[in-house]
């Protein structure tokens, strides 16, 4: 289902970008759940290629994962994966879109990167040459998150497909580059030089274990430090994983999915309910020792269908907050409050990528709007009293990082 998420998101992006690069708050007025006035932000970085999650180092420097712009290598993709002719992928541009409306082309390359924004405001790409896949419509997958530990960065690299697609791309084009899709990479920073190595292969873990058995699909998303190890969300595998200091993976949780009313274009009887998958996007360990998980939800991406799930130290999964829509990230603020990003306030099928930053209320279905009118926001991180949010996540070269001073919310 996450690969369907990406296709829909790409189509929505194309529709939105044809009219505007920033959506006003008016489009989201119908969802605002309280009387708090959203605050204005300050842009601290521009020109990013499909920025996703980001993290703040202890000294206030920011690191942003950029999914990139794909590249020159190309595969024709159908509903079942790459389109083959006697075992060989058909050439891109050789097929009739009217005859095969469900087919599409993905373009792969080495345009994924990590950008650093220093606390003094200097912006530069400190890691380049990571694998990236352009899914069309401005949507890409590649570097999804970055965590900092000393002079080392831990980077999740997405895929959004069966690991067999990665293996095919590696065989056809560049084995060394594309084998890094669906992995965790450890990047060592040493002056202007960097060196990377694969720490964990989430694609192989999904193929071997498939924690959520709907389909074999992997799309590593968020990573966060957790003691001596790490917590990772696999939005394709619908799972939350734990990685120890040696790179060994285990399943921490599989959050529940749900049901939503079928959209009219499916032409099902009115009121028909269809299942949706959870699609976990981020996880953080709270002060109580529990892990808190955000979910995007899979198709049909229901408005109000996203839940923040709590996994207790004993492994019990319970609902912690509801009423959210297409949540892509969460983080705890300095006061212990939980904040979350909504990618599309009115749902991905609305073709409106107006999103927001919310302060989450435990046990509630309505939440405080901190920042609104954000175009395609995705990641959030905190440093002192500031929240930093990536926006323009579907715009190659048009992504930004925006800072919000939370003291203005009081």
TrEMBL record:
- Would you say which domain of life the source belongs to? Bacteria
Q: Which InterPro entries match?
A: ScyD/ScyE-like, WD40/YVTN_repeat-like_dom_sf
Q: Which residues form a coiled coil?
A: none
Q: So which residues are the signal peptide here?
A: 1-26
Q: Which UniProt keywords apply?
A: Signal
Query: What protein name does the entry list?
Result: ScyD/ScyE family protein
Protein source organism:
Ornithinimicrobium faecis
């Amino acid at each position: 289902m996450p690969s369907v998420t990406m296709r829909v998101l790409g189509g929505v992006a194309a529709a939105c970008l044809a009219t505007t690069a920033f959506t006003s708050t008016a489009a989201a007025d119908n969802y605002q759940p309280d009387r708090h006035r959203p605050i204005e932000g300050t842009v601290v970085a521009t020109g990013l290629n499909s920025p996703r999650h980001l993290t703040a180092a202890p000294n206030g420097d920011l690191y942003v994962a950029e999914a990139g712009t794909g590249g020159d290598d190309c595969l024709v993709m159908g509903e079942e994966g790459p389109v083959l002719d006697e075992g060989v992928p058909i050439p891109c541009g050789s097929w009739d879109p009217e005859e095969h409306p469900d087919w599409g082309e993905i373009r792969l390359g080495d345009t994924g990167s990590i950008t650093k924004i220093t606390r003094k405001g200097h912006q530069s790409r400190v890691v380049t040459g990571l694998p990236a896949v352009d899914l069309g419509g401005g949507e890409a997958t590649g570097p999804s998150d970055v965590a900092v530990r000393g002079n080392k960065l831990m980077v999740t690299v997405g895929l959004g497909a069966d690991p067999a697609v990665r293996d095919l791309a590696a065989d056809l084009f560049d084995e060394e580059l594309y084998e890094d899709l669906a992995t965790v990479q450890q990047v060592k920073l040493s002056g202007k030089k960097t060196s990377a190595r694969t720490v964990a292969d989430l694609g192989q873990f999904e193929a071997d274990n498939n924690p959520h058995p709907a389909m074999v699909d992997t799309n590593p998303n968020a990573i966060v430090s957790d003691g001596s190890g790490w917590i990772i969300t696999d939005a394709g595998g619908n799972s939350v994983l734990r990685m120890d200091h040696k790179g060994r993976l285990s399943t921490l949780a599989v959050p529940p999915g749900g049901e939503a009313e079928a959209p009219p274009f499916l032409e099902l009887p009115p009121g028909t309910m269809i299942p949706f998958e959870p699609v976990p996007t981020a996880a953080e360990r709270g002060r109580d020792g529990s892990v808190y998980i955000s979910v995007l939800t899979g198709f049909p991406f229901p408005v109000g269908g996203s839940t923040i799930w709590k996994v207790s130290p004993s492994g019990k999964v319970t609902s912690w907050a509801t009423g959210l829509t297409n949540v892509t990230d969460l983080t705890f603020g300095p006061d212990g409050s939980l904040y979350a990003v909504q990618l599309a306030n009115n749902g991905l099928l609305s073709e409106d990528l107006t999103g927001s930053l919310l302060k989450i209320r435990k046990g509630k279905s309505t939440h405080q709007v901190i920042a609104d009118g954000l175009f395609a926001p995705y990641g959030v991180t905190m440093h002192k009293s500031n929240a930093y949010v990536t926006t323009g996540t579907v715009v190659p070269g048009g992504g930004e990082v925006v800072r919000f001073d939370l003291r203005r919310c009081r």
